[in-house]
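User: Can you predict the 3D structure for this chain?
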Amino acid sequence: MNDDGRFVILGTSGTRARWFTEVGSWASGGAAPIEFVRCVSVAEVIGRLRGGARASAVLVDATTPGVDRELSSCCDRSDVALLRVSDPRHGGPTDRDADGAVLPPSFGVEELLATLQSVARPVRWRTVMHAGELTDRADDPVDATYRGRLTVVCGRGGAGASVTAMALAQHLAGDDLDSGSVVLADLTRNGDQGCYHDAPDVVPALQELVELHRHGTATRSAVESMLHEVPGRGYSLLLGLRRPHDWVALHPAAIEATLCSLRSAFRHVVADVTADFEGEALTGSVDVEERNALARTAVEAADTVVAVGRDGVKGTRDLVRLVDDLTAHGVPTDRIVPVVTHAPRDRAGRAELAKALAALCATPPEASPVFLPAHRRLEAHLRCADPLPASLCRLVGRAVLAIARCTDDPTNSQIGALT
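Assistant: Here is the predicted structure, written as structure tokens:
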């Protein structure tokens, strides 16, 4: 990327017109020095601008609901050009009677670039999209040479993966000598951690943190400002997506940079992810790969992966398929910790489960399964946002730390200090 940067466009179209798809293909294919951020509505465009997102222009269909004076004034305050797609021959606005420039529906890449060069300014690559702050001027940048431990927790719906992630984060926070050294990141598409923690706010969250990393590296203070403290459990919380379809606003490269910043700022990062890892190679769809970018990126970078399943025929089948999906995705078997929730308390039942996993998995994990029995008061702890039972946290925490001691890189003294 040169010093001139590139044009960052926030775009929305109520009817998903042809130009909307074409601009996206020009951006992804490198046909023009632009980045196209797809927004689902005008309200999202306004929210991004008010949240400090740096952009060159807003590109909207003139017939889209919500294209009014509020959008125009928001663009003026953010120093962002407003481009409307309209056909004056069919009664649409022209340059004379509309704020900003007007493009015909059949505009090409040359016409778009010429318009941008005349009315918009490119965004420099090193600019952080957070209140215009530059990483070069920051006095508290994250330490790029330090890499905290990343543990991914995943499971099929209803298995208890989110609660297991909470229990692990609480144990790591209590086991660590430094306070504020553990973060629980909700990277699921449904974003349930906010409900489990009775979070009073929905922002800032994952979307805002990823947005910080679209054009640079966020400062440590900027990363910490996106988190919510959970004092009763000792860790910080990164809230997840507000709506399941908000993944369309997350750029895969920015997701990777976000995880790097979290690992540079915390000794332990516990990521709760959706157990979907299919990509373009398997499905032939780029959209599927981008939808699963959160889970794929986290699993590929993880030091340990906790695969959670529930006791029973269906739960065992789901856990076996999950382990097979993880190994097929390239996760080494010595880094997978199988966890069975609502597990039987008798030894015979647990031995039968362990035998079934070893027989049914294509490549069984090397670690023995962790059995978490049902806890009668767990729901009460969740409703009151109280600390989770120590016995529950200890079981999964010790299993993860045992793998950490076996897989730590001895050349990294900071990572080795975890043991």
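Residues 18 and 105 are 8 Å apart (CA to CA). The chain has two domains: 7-125, 149-416.
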